[in-house]
Write a structure and sequence with these properties.
CATH topology: Thrombin, subunit H
Strand order of the largest sheet: 1-2-3-6-5-4
Order of helices and strands: EEEEEEH
Oligomer: single chain
Largest sheet: 6 strands, antiparallel, barrel
CATH class: Mainly Beta
Strand content: over 45%
Shape: globular
Number of domains: 1
Structural class: mainly beta
Distance between the termini: 23 Å
Radius of gyration: 15 Å
Length: 124
Amino acid sequence: MDKERRRYVRVKKPIVVQYKENSQSRWDMTLVKDISAGGMLITTDRAFPEGTVLNFRINLPSSPFQKFEVNGKVVSSKNMVARLSGEVLSSAFISRIQFFELNESQKQSLEFYIGSFLKQGGNL
């Protein structure tokens, strides 16, 4: 079986971001499991239908004073249940997000953040 070829290098460093659906006014917070210039993997307390557009507020640790907003489309969302002896301990959803409408500055910020781990030999 062929290995999946990723278009973008992903960094597996937890980042906290805010997100909301376009129709909502309240921002929720989530933990990013990995991030690239093309998208990210997030954990949420509910599943989102494929194609759902979410707004994100991202503040990268490499640029602590630069917060930007970006739109992302849900590519997939699935339930990850942790059980012990048949009893549900926790339930969370993992969603794959694809960024769109990134401007050049946002893309450069993401690439700089990811590049900083490549130079350090960090956890990708």
